[in-house]
Write a structure and sequence with these properties.
- The protein is α/β, with parallel strands linked by helices and 197 residues long.
- It has one domain: Glucose-6-phosphate isomerase like protein, domain 1 (Rossmann fold, 3-Layer(aba) Sandwich), CATH 3.40.50.10490.
- The protein is built from 7 helices and 5 strands.
């Protein structure tokens, strides 16, 4: 197989997974969008966390809310829990890496806020610890996962929202995670700006 064919296969596979994801996830993405928009309109905030590529997605999402997505609007309260290296390294050094997000949620999370917990496998211990503390603080959770949702599934409460990409390949899951984040940003903007109900 030559490089051109490999590229074609990547595109074809990505399109197929995105179509399957739309069928499986569209309703739940709407629920997550409304949950986040309601929190932001009520003066709450959205926190986001994840590791590796999911850390980058957390930062991307927070930036789109805090600054802007595609339309001009007032800034929205969003925090990526993945960006403060002094906080992350001090918690990891003094306590444990599993607590790098949960201690931030404990300090910053308030009832009515939302945590976007991103893990392609659904098995990231530090993301699961953040979910546990979020529940203790009255923070609702939107879990963005793949595969079968992993161990995070059992942690979620009925009023949380689970967005699980129906795929096993990490690259495909990450591609749908980015698209989902853009859907959330677009929907939040539409609700905040009164362009939809």
């Amino acid at each position: 197989m030559n490089i051109q064919q490999r590229i074609q296969n990547q595109f074809d596979d990505s399109v197929a997974v995105k179509q399957a994801a739309y069928a499986a996830m569209a309703h739940r993405i709407e629920l997550a969008t409304r949950l986040m928009a309601d929190s932001l309109r009520a003066g709450g905030k959205v926190m986001a966390c994840g590791n590796g590529g999911s850390a980058a997605d957390s930062q991307h999402f927070a930036a789109e809310l805090l600054n802007r997505f595609e339309k001009e609007r007032p800034p929205l309260a969003a925090i990526a829990l993945t960006t403060d290296t002094s906080t992350l390294t001090s918690i990891a050094n003094d306590y444990a890496y599993e607590q790098v997000f949960s201690k931030q949620v404990q300090a910053l999370g308030c009832a009515g806020d939302v945590l976007l917990a991103i893990s392609t496998s659904g098995n990231s211990p530090n993301v699961m610890a953040a979910i546990q503390v979020a529940h203790e603080r009255g923070v609702r959770v939107v879990a963005l996962t793949g595969k079968n949702g992993g161990k995070m599934v059992a942690m979620l409460r009925p009023d949380d929202v689970h967005l699980c990409v129906p795929a096993d390949r990490t690259a495909r899951i990450q591609e749908v995670h980015l698209l989902t984040i853009h859907c959330l940003c677009d929907g939040i903007d539409a609700l905040i700006l009164g362009e939809t109900t």
